[in-house]
Specification:
Elements lengths: L4 H6 L26 E19 L5 E13 L5 E6 L3 E4 L4 E10 L9 E10 L9 E9 L16 E15 L3 E9 L2 E3 L2 E7 L2 E8 L2 E10 L2 E8 L2 E9 L5 E8 L3 E9 L4
Antiparallel strand pairs: 1-2, 1-8, 2-3, 3-4, 4-5, 5-6, 6-7, 7-8, 9-10, 9-11, 9-17, 11-12, 12-13, 13-14, 14-15, 15-16, 16-17
Length: 271
């Protein structure tokens, strides 16, 4: 069994984003997603921004933003996400993400709502949105509140729905980098290293450890990660889940049906 053990360790990490290598959009510096994140999904929204006429603490009436209500479609026109209060985005695969505004900038069109950068605050379900960490709202059209003079005591509690459109870019951590892995097979353990490159849902890279060096391939779909390679004549297969921050993967490994175990891989911080 010893000859297979190092191979199991090799499984390490592998993951990829579903973004398929989509380029980042051109936005003001304040709206750029953090370094180390990649576009995983893009959707075009059409819907409304909902406002309510109400009195503020100063007893002056004004239109106050309540919630968005929109459908996002992909490049083929297929509906993929429902956008609603939170702000929340729910994908057709059942996964959801809730965000909060981190930065905003005026839209190039003065008759449009601002462009935004949002940070994810919570997730629900398993799927493409389960690991989203940043969201951009750009290319906005419409959506502004009604004229201020239309909100007074006589309109208290009245809702207004302003039509809008926008493009939303969803980001998740890029798993490209060096990963230190701990593999446990019964009473044995090993600590191989993986150097991975993520491109869309595909992973490529190398394993280095007790078995020498070997090329690896893998896939990443949502939080599910798989990695495969050959070492010491055995076909090694790893399957696990990556955390929402893209810094740790945990799962099980099998090497050629000869032995099985568990692994935890941690991404090395870049300097």
């Amino acid at each position: 069994m010893n000859k297979f053990f190092p191979v199991v360790a090799a499984m390490g990490m592998m993951f990829a984003a579903q973004g398929g290598g989509t380029a980042r959009p051109d936005v003001p510096d304040s709206l750029k997603a953090p370094v180390g994140e990649e576009v995983v999904l893009v959707g075009h929204a059409t819907g409304v921004q909902i406002y309510v006429c109400q009195a503020g603490a100063d007893q002056k009436f004004a239109w106050v933003f309540k919630a968005p209500e929109a459908e996002l479609t992909d490049s083929t026109g297929k509906k993929i996400i429902h956008h609603f209060a939170g702000p929340t985005w729910k994908h057709v695969d059942g996964s959801e993400v809730v965000g909060k505004v981190a930065a905003k900038a005026d839209a190039p069109n003065p008759q449009a709502i601002p462009w935004l950068l949002l940070t994810a605050t919570s997730h629900t379900g398993e799927g493409i949105l389960s690991r989203v960490t940043s969201i951009q709202r750009i290319h906005t059209e419409g959506g502004l509140a009604p004229n201020a003079n239309t909100c007074d005591a006589s309109a208290n509690g009245k809702e207004s729905r302003s039509a809008y459109s926008a493009d939303y870019y969803f980001y998740k951590p890029d798993l490209t980098g060096t990963w230190n892995c701990k593999v446990v097979l019964g009473e044995q353990s090993g600590t191989p290293t993986f150097v991975l490159k993520q491109q869309g849902e595909k992973l490529t890279g190398t394993y280095s450890g007790a078995l020498g060096d070997a090329p690896v391939t893998g896939t990443v779909k949502g939080s599910d990660v798989t990695i495969d390679f050959e070492a010491s004549g055995a076909q090694i297969h790893y399957a696990g889940k990556v955390d929402k921050d893209g810094k740790k993967i945990e799962g099980t490994c099998d090497y050629g049906g000869q032995a099985s175990g568990t692994f935890v891989a941690t991404k090395k911080e870049s300097k």
